[in-house]
Design brief:
This protein has helices at residues 3-9, 34-46, 53-56, 77-94, 100-120, 124-138, 269-308, 317-342, 356-381, 384-387, 400-406, 415-429, 432-443, 448-458, 461-471, and strands at 17-19, 22-23, 57-59, 66-68, 142-145, 168-173, 176-187, 194-197, 212-217, 223-227, 248-259, 263-266, 345-346, 352-353. By secondary structure, it is an alpha+beta fold. The strands form four sheets. It has a six-stranded mixed beta sheet, with no helix packed on it. Helix 7 runs antiparallel to helix 12.
C-alpha cells in the first residue's frame, strides 16, 4: 500500500476508540489522530520511491516475496544496517515512524516461537509465520501491546490484588483463549489494523496465565482504546507536529476471545521472558536510528538558524563547537547501532540478533542525552525561540510590520523565514510535544535501568578481569568464575568476529 491506501484501509475497521474523553466515529477522519496516521503513512510512501527501494523493501526469506522493510525478518548484518538506516530516514521525515515496532516484534517473535516449539513441542512458529505472511501480503500495521498497567510494582503478576493490572488468560477453550487486562503505552493503537499482545517481563511458573502472546484485530469485541491525541494538530505554532506526531494509548481487553491460530504463546513462562528481552534488543536497536533521525532535524534547524542570525561557524568558534557537540551526540549513539549491526549474532531460528551490549549502550546514551540535544539546539538558535511572539501576531496589522522590521537577522533572509525556523525549533524542543519526545526517549523501549541491567548481564566483565590477572602473573581466575576461553572472540562484546571481507557495508 501507499499512504493513501493505508489511510483508506482503516475505514474497514470499527475500533472502540476514545481520544480526550470523546468517542471517535472514524479513525481515518479524526483530526486529532491525523498526524499519527501521516507518520505511519511515510513508511508506506517511501517504499514506493525508487531511491529508497534498497532500504525500504526486502525479500522475505520464508516466502520469497518482496515486503516492506518494517515487516521483514532480518537474516544478515546487512539487513540490520539497512533497517537502521531506513528507520533513520523515516524519522528525519516524520519524527517518529512508529511502524518499526512491527519489525522489532516480528523478529523477537520469530526467535521466541521457534524456541518454544523446540522446548515444548508446540506449533507456535508455524502459526506465527502464517500470520506474518498474511500481514506482509496485505501490508498491515500492528501496534505492540507490551507494557502492562502493572499495579503494585513490588508484586509479581500472579500476586496482584487486581489480576487485570496484567493481561492474562482468563479462560482456555477448545477453539482458543479468552484474555483480560490492560496494556499501557501502546504506540499508534487507534490507527493500526491489529494489536500484538506480548508479555512485558520475565515470568515464574506461578505467572503462567500472564505469559501470553497473541494477535487481536483492533476492532475485536471487548477491546477499548483510550488514547491521547497525536502531535499538535491544528496549532499554528506547531510547524512540525501539526503534520506528524504519534498517539499513545491504554488498551483494555475485556474478555476478548482469540482463536488458537492467532495465539503464539500461552503459559510458556521461560520463553515469554526470552521474548521480552529479544524484542527489547531489536527495539532498542531501532530506537537508536529513530532518535538519530530526530537529531538530524535538530542539526538541520540549528544550521538554518545560525545562517539566519548572520553567524559563520568558521569564524565563530563557540557556535561551531556547540554544533559539533550536537553532532557528536547524535552520531555517537548511532555508531552504537552500526556496531550492533556489524556484530549481530545469528539466532538458531534463522534470523539475526543485534548485539545486545551495543544496542543497549546506544539506547542508554540517547535516553539520557536527549535533553542535552535540546539544550545544544537552544544554544545555537539564539534567543529568538524565547522572544518570538505567537504566530497570530504574524497577521496582526497593528504589530506585524514593526515586528518584522526588528526580528530579522541577515538582511538577505526574510524575518518570516527566520521566525519559521525558530518556531520549528520551539516545536521540537520547547512545546508539550517536545516534552513528549523527551519522555518517550527516556522510557520508550524500557527505562535506563532496564538497559543497564542488560549491559551488565551481557558484557564479558570476567574476561577483562582474566586479562589483568594474566598480566599480573596471577594465573587463571578461580574455577567458579565465568571466563570465556574461546579463541576468536571480540574483546568488546564477546561475539564472534567476522573476517574483514565478510563485514557488511551500508549500501551495496
Amino acid at each position: 500500500m501507499d499512504a493513501a491506501q493505508y489511510r483508506d484501509s482503516l475505514r474497514g475497521y470499527a475500533p472502540r476508540v476514545f481520544v480526550e474523553g470523546q468517542a471517535v466515529a472514524c479513525v481515518a477522519d479524526e483530526p486529532l489522530l491525523a498526524p499519527g496516521i501521516n507518520g505511519i503513512g511515510v513508511c508506506y510512501d517511501f517504499a514506493h520511491r525508487p531511491e529508497h527501494a534498497v532500504l525500504m523493501t526486502a525479500r522475505q526469506g520464508t516466502s520469497g516475496k518482496t515486503v516492506n522493510r518494517m515487516t521483514h525478518i532480518d537474516e544478515t548484518s546487512t539487513d540490520l544496517l539497512y533497517k537502521l538506516e531506513a528507520v533513520r530516514l523515516l524519522c528525519r521525515e516524520s519524527g517518529c515512524a512508529q511502524r518499526y515496532l512491527v519489525h522489532d516484534a516480528a523478529n523477537g517473535l520469530f526467535q521466541a516461537t521457534r524456541r518454544a516449539d523446540l522446548e515444548h513441542g508446540t506449533d507456535y512458529h508455524a502459526r506465527f509465520l502464517n500470520y506474518l505472511h498474511g500481514v506482509q501480503e496485505r501490508d498491515l500495521t500492528f501496534a505492540i501491546c507490551m507494557t502492562d498497567a502493572k499495579g503494585d510494582r513490588s508484586k509479581r503478576p500472579g500476586q496482584q490484588a487486581n489480576a487485570d493490572c496484567y493481561v492474562h488468560i482468563s479462560e482456555r477453550r477448545p477453539d482458543g483463549i479468552v484474555i483480560r487486562g490492560t496494556k499501557a503505552i501502546v504506540t499508534g493503537a487507534p490507527y493500526v489494523h491489529e494489536l500484538m499482545v506480548m508479555p512485558c517481563r520475565t515470568m515464574v511458573p506461578e505467572d503462567a496465565a500472564f505469559a501470553v502472546c497473541c494477535a487481536v484485530p483492533v476492532d475485536a469485541e471487548g477491546v477499548t482504546i483510550v488514547s491521547r491525541r497525536a502531535g499538535r494538530p491544528g496549532e499554528a505554532a506547531a510547524k512540525f507536529s501539526a503534520k506528524y506526531g504519534q498517539s499513545v494509548a491504554a488498551v483494555i481487553f475485556d474478555d476478548v476471545f482469540v482463536p488458537w491460530d492467532r495465539v503464539f504463546m500461552a503459559g510458556e513462562t521461560e520463553e515469554a521472558g526470552f521474548l521480552t528481552t529479544s524484542y527489547a534488543t531489536h527495539h532498542r536497536h531501532s530506537c537508536i536510528a529513530a532518535r538519530a533521525g530526530f537529531g538530524d532535524l535538530l542539526i538541520g534547524a540549528g544550521a538554518l538558524m545560525i545562517e539566519a542570525n548572520g553567524l559563520d561557524p568558521e569564524r565563530h568558534g563557540h557556535i561551531r563547537d556547540t554544533m559539533v557537540d550536537l553532532i557528536k551526540i547524535v552520531e555517537g549513539f548511532f555508531a552504537c547501532g552500526v556496531a550492533a549491526s556489524v556484530y549481530g549474532a545469528k539466532d538458531p531460528s534463522g534470523n539475526i540478533m543485534p548485539d545486545a551490549v551495543f544496542s543497549n549502550i546506544g539506547k542508554l546514551l540517547l535516553a539520557t542525552q536527549i535533553y542535552d540535544m535540546h539544550r545544544l539546539a537552544h544554544t545555537v538558535s539564539g534567543g529568538l525561540v524565547v522572544a518570538l511572539p505567537g504566530p497570530d501576531e504574524d497577521h496582526n496589522p497593528e504589530t506585524a510590520a514593526s515586528l518584522a522590521a526588528v526580528l530579522g537577522g541577515r538582511p538577505d533572509i526574510p524575518s518570516s523565514q527566520r521566525a519559521e525556523v525558530a518556531r520549528f525549533i520551539e516545536d521540537l524542543t520547547v512545546s508539550n510535544q517536545a516534552g513528549w519526545y523527551s519522555v518517550i526517549s527516556l522510557h520508550g523501549g524500557g527505562s535506563p535501568e532496564a538497559m543497564k541491567r542488560e549491559i551488565w548481564r551481557n558484557y564479558p566483565v570476567a574476561e577483562k578481569a582474566a586479562v589483568v590477572e594474566r598480566l599480573l602473573d596471577r594465573g587463571l581466575l578461580d574455577e567458579g568464575r565465568r571466563v570465556s576461553k574461546q579463541p576468536g572472540r571480540c574483546c568488546a562484546t564477546g561475539c564472534d568476529v567476522p573476517e574483514p571481507a565478510a563485514l557488511p557495508v551500508a549500501a551495496e
